[in-house]
Write a structure and sequence with these properties.
The chain is of the alpha+beta class and about 260 residues long. It contains 6 helices and 12 strands. A 5-stranded mixed sheet has the order 1-12-2-8-9. It has a 3-stranded antiparallel sheet with strand order 4-5-6. It has a two-stranded antiparallel sheet with strand order 3-7. Strand 8 and strand 9 form a beta hairpin. Helix 3 crosses helix 4. It starts with 5 loop residues before the first strand and ends in a 28-residue tail after the last strand.
Length: about 260
């Protein structure tokens, strides 16, 4: 990998609503930021703007909680309507305690509240929550294909979100979907500096890029949902070029902590 990486948040990104064309938003953003996209650039989009554009907003006033949701809500001190939506996006409950509900999302992620969030949604309405994109990799594919058609430029697309982490405080950006970049680089069999063969090393490239972008996107009112990463050389990881973000999910058979 090259020794220099340039990371810049695009300016003048408007609040996104259902049905907005993110390709138009990206193109306008790069133009107003006085940037010309180049082959090999990577655009990192915050999950929220993708979810909003795809209409993944739920009005809790329209939700009727079932028996399981009512029981889980009592155990976790959460709104039963929110719990009903969480359960609908989850395969199973991993852990629950007052104020905490960790589930396995339908896409395989282990996360709090199935990734459902109420911050920065619909002007701060407490009755509106935002789900994760239904198919993040597909969303990335569509954006990449359309940008290539519009601009003739081959860029990588990454959708990131903030995850809490076991054993460490604070959230960190991770990749939900990718297109045009390697996500997981299996380096087992490579040699280290002293010629020793690496046995277990796998590099979570997409998560590292997602975390770098998250520093500029912020977690509050920053309003910087699209970040451009330039200078990342994926050539050494060419063998992992088709590996998507779903490969980053640890199989349950290898999970020693559930």
């Amino acid at each position: 990998m090259d020794g220099t990486l340039n990371i810049a948040a695009l300016d003048h990104i408007p609040l996104i609503e259902a049905g907005d064309d993110l390709v138009d938003v990206i193109i306008t953003g790069v133009e107003r930021s006085d940037i010309r996209l180049q082959d090999g650039d990577i655009l990192v989009l915050a999950q929220k703007i993708v979810s909003k554009a795809e209409g993944r907003i739920v009005d809790l006033t329209s939700v009727t909680p079932g028996e399981e949701a009512e029981e889980v809500a009592k155990a976790t001190d959460k709104d039963p309507r929110l719990v009903e939506v969480i359960l609908g996006e989850s395969r199973s409950i991993i852990r629950q305690a007052p104020g905490v509900l960790i589930t396995e999302h339908m896409r395989g992620w282990i996360m709090a509240n199935a990734g459902i969030d109420a911050s920065n949604v619909c002007g701060g309405s407490e009755n509106h929550v935002l789900l994760l994109p239904a198919r993040p990799n597909r969303s990335c594919d569509k954006l990449r294909t359309r940008l290539l058609k519009r601009l003739g430029t081959k860029v990588g697309i990454l959708i990131n979100d903030s995850f809490g982490r076991p054993w460490r405080l604070g959230t960190c950006g991770v990749a939900l979907g990718t297109a045009g970049i390697p996500s997981l680089w299996d380096r087992r069999g490579d040699k280290d500096m002293f010629g020793r063969e690496m046995q277990v090393s796998q590099q979570a490239i997409a998560d590292e890029l997602a975390a770098a972008a998250s520093l500029l996107q912020g977690q509050g009112a920053e309003g910087k949902p699209i970040v451009l990463i330039r200078g990342f050389d994926a050539t050494p990881a060419a063998s992992a070029a088709e590996v998507r973000a779903t490969a980053l999910i640890r199989p349950e058979t290898e999970d020693l902590f559930r």
